[in-house]
Fold this sequence. Notes:
Metal Binding Protein, Guanine Nucleotide Exchange Factor, Chain A, 8-stranded mixed sheet, 3-stranded antiparallel sheet, binds zinc ion
Amino acid sequence: MENSHKGQCFCGAVKIEVTGDPMGMGYCHCVSCRSWASTRVHCWTAWPPQAVIVTKGQDNIGSFSKTENSDRRFCKTCGGNIMTLHPTMGMTDICAGTLPTLPFEPGLHTHYAETIQPMADGLAKFKDLPADFGGSGDMLPE
Ligand SMILES: [Zn+2]
Ligand SMILES: [Zn+2]
C-alpha cells in the first residue's frame, strides 16, 4: 500500500500497519506517557483510528485503561506497548519508535507543565493539550 508504515511489538507477535499521514507528531511530557513508555519524554504520532490496522496477533493484544481518555494496548507475550487509543479525542497514538520507516517530524510539545526534561527546540509548548485536541490551548515558555 502506498504511504503505509509497518510496526510491531517487542517480540513480533503483534504487527500493525498505518496508512496515510499522521494527524500530528510531537513530544508528550505527561506522567502517564512517561510511565507507560518507560521514558522521560514520549515521542507520539497521532492517527485517525481507521488508519491503523492490526495485521497479526489481534488475539494477543491486552488493554489497560487508567482513565477513560486512554485505552492502552500491549502485547500479552512480551509486554511491549503497541498503541494507545484516545476515544474521547478520536485518535490513536503510536510511539514513534514503533514505526521505524515513518520520518519523525515533531510539531509540538504536549503536557509541558509536567515536564522533567525541558527541551529548548523552539517548538510550541502546550501546558496540556491544544484546544483542537480538547485541551486548554494554553502555552508555556521553554
Ligand atoms: Zn510482543
Ligand atoms: Zn502524555
